[in-house]
Every structure is written in structure tokens, then in C-alpha cells.
Amino acid sequence: MTTNGGSEPVIDRTSAFCAHTPVFCTIVPPHILDHLAAHEDQALADSALRTLQHDSAARIRRRITAVRTTAVAVAAPAAPDTAPHRTIYDAEHGTALPGTEVRAEGSEPGQDATVNRAYAGLGATFELYLKAYERNSIDGDGLPLNATVHYDVNYDNAFWNGDQMVFGDGDGEIFVDFTTSVDVIGHELTHGVTQYTANLEYYGQSGALNESVSDVFGSLIKQYSLGQTADQADWLIGEGLLAPGVNGVALRSMKAPGTAYDDPRLGKDPQPATMQHYVKTSRDNGGVHINSGIPNHAFYLLATALGGNAWERAGQIWYDVLTGGELQSDATFVDFAKLTVAAARTRYQTGEESEAALKAWAQVGVQAS
Which one of 42, 128, 214, 300 is least enclosed by Cβ atoms within 10 Å? Predict the structure, then answer.
């Protein structure tokens, strides 16, 4: 069992599906920003330090809110809607949320490409969950999807704060506009799906699973929007976010964890692909952005072994586990793996899917039998 050592709020696991405890989740992990904050280029260091300080303060505010939040009743499921309800706001480089409304659902694209990308990314996320899994928005009950763009100055991150999406513009030298990658948008919104379902604690292995689930569905949203099969997909998270001149292709690689970047300013991608190289650390809530590479790689192996569209069989298995009610908020990799095998057997019964799941987990060093 993963313990939190008293550093995180205690969650009542008996009401995990009604508490909806939100966490503050960013796409750029702290270890990358730590490298940048120590860089000799003062402008780069200042941007990274400012981002780290903001994220730390926001994380504390979210934690206090979570502790004060009491359980609420789960609303009865609504009939699936046929369209999202999106609103895009402009922070105008300030930090007050949500900012000035600049595009509402159904309105025509404007001149601001960032606004248009955010609007399209929210729509792509809504569409995958509705069409592939019959889920009506991220809460399953038609939750409006709100996002704020142009947040702060040189802000090197994007995040889900428990209520909405927020996008920085990047510093232009290391990171570009965070609306550039649809998988980043899908990743962050999937933290909302997890918030309303399994409510995985954001620490240790359960936190790494929280991050991995977001990477999985972020990648599936990108693949669905591009019409790619598992073999055609690049399996990169944040492809296109790194500015020209940065030695890297993305923030993470599900196909080959540990290979996404190797840059003097960013450091080297520390993600392991197997349990043999599991990272024990007290940083980043017990390495949630690092050890997520292990379940990420297991999903990649399963999806490519099954072939076809990854959001169908492989994605359906992951979705069944996330929403099935048996995944505990403090789940370990072994807990999650066993549930994926059971979900595959329950849904497909043929044996191919469950055997492929067993093999995928075994390849990353997690025994699911």
C-alpha cells in the first residue's frame, strides 16, 4: 500500500466516488522546471522560478480546499448530450481567473489562434469521451468545459485546477504556447475525469497512476482526432511544446520512456519503462510524473499488441477500470494491473485481451496474475 507519510490530506476511501477531491495537476513536471531554475541564463531561470512558485502556491490552495471539502451526493446520470458547452477566457497575462470571456460555445473562430486551439482541444476531449465511452463531459453529467488562455507572463505550464483548464504561453525559448498539443489538453481534462471517478490520491504509485491515466487518454484523444491506429501513433505527450533548439521531441514518451528529451537546460528524461528502474524520491509527490512511465509503457504494449484503434479495446479496458468502482484511491500498480486483466476478461471473454494485458504488465515488471 502506498502511504502518504502525513504529507497529504487524508481521504475517506469509503466515499471516494462522491468526494470528488480535486488536485492541482500540471503538464510540465517540477524536475524540468528545477533544471531551468538553476540555469545560468537569468531570464530562463526567472521564468522557471516564477512558474515553480506559482504552482507551489496554487497546489497549497488546492490542498486546503480539498481538506475543507465535504462529500456531496452523486448526481443521477444524464442522457448524453450531443455537443460540449465550452467557454474560453483570456487572462490577458494576469492571474485572475477566469478572465474575460472571448469565445462561447457555437461562436465562430476569432483572430486569436490560442483561443481557437483551446476551444478545439476541449471539443476533441469531449468527443472522445462521448463517442468512445458514452461519457457526457468529464463528470459524466454534462459539466461545462471552461478554459483560460494567456495566463501570467512567460508561464511555462498548463494545469487543471479542479474546476477549469488554464494555459500559459510559455517563455518562447524553452516552451511555446501550451494549447499547441491537443494531448496536453486531453491530459489535463482527464485529471477531471479521474477526480469524478476513482479519485486516485496524488502521491506515490496512486499518483503515478493518476498521471498515467491522463497520459493514456491524452494520447487517445490525439489519436482519435487524427484518425490514427496504435501503430501509426507517435505515443508522445506534449509533442510540439518544446521550442526550436531544444534537444527533445516531447515531455514524455509512452513508447520509450526516458527518451523524450536530453537537453542541457532541461536535463535528461528520467522516466523508467520498467519496475527495475522505479525511482524512489520524495520530490514531485513521490515521483508521480516520473514513475508514470511504467504504467504508460504497459498501456502502449497492450495497445500495440491488440492493434487497430487504441481507444477501442485497450482504451475501453482502462476506462472500465477507472470508472468501475473497484479501483481504490490508494491503488498500487499491481492493484491497477489486476483490475485491467479482470476488466478485459469481463468485457471481452475471448482471452486475447486479458492475455495481452497480462503480458504487457509482465514486460514492465508488474505481476498482474
Answer: 42
